[in-house]
Write a structure and sequence with these properties.
The structure is a homodimer.
Chain A lengths: L13 E7 L5 E7 L1 H10 L3 E4 L4 E4 L8 E8 L6 E7 L14 E3 L4
Parallel strand pairs in A: 1-6
Antiparallel strand pairs in A: 1-2, 3-4, 5-6
Chain lengths: 108, 108
């Protein structure tokens, strides 16, 4: 069993980047607390903590749009997670496959 | 000019996911405040806000490992950014190309 406590040294929530394994597309970012990270590791599907609803959230439990985990990595200073998944249906509640659909125009 | 204020409704910092455009590899996550987001948009290179040093941070200014922006997207609820870049050298201060090199083993 891994020591999950190291991911909560800076606070009670850690951001988790969700990336589609087959395409490399970044689908969403959500937050995990200790309990949701533990459930994610136990079940192999993503669980998050909703900051607005203040409750655990099993991604796809209502919509069926679950995320089956392929791999998980922590970053160099243990304050962000990268989770590669097999996404069923759309990741975004808007129906978009990815949540990142609002392009920002700049000078680049 | 885009309205950047909408990205700071929940707080003074917004997480920015940095993804390598050519490979799809997620390189790092860092935080932007209003000033660093404005400088990022103005210059076409990433600027962050360091929570530990409490200062603006032009990624690569010291190491030369700059990130030239290819595209930027906001997510569905305007509280996360996804930035695709051309990465010079390694993104991680450890010398790893990506910060996400610590694999987490689970039952999946």
């Amino acid at each position: 069993m891994i020591d999950i406590e190291k991911y909560f040294k800076k606070g009670d929530l850690i951001p988790a980047i969700i990336q589609e394994e087959s395409t490399g597309e970044v689908l969403m970012l959500a937050y995990m607390n200790r309990e949701s990270l533990a459930k994610t590791l136990q079940t192999g599907y993503t669980w998050f903590y909703s900051r607005s609803r203040r409750e655990l959230w099993n991604k796809g439990a209502t919509s069926g749009h679950v995320q089956k985990i392929v791999s998980m990595h922590g970053d160099c200073d243990d304050d962000t997670l990268l989770i590669k998944v097999i996404q069923t249906g759309a990741a975004c509640h808007t129906g978009n496959h990815s949540c990142f659909f609002n392009e920002i125009k700049g000078e680049f």
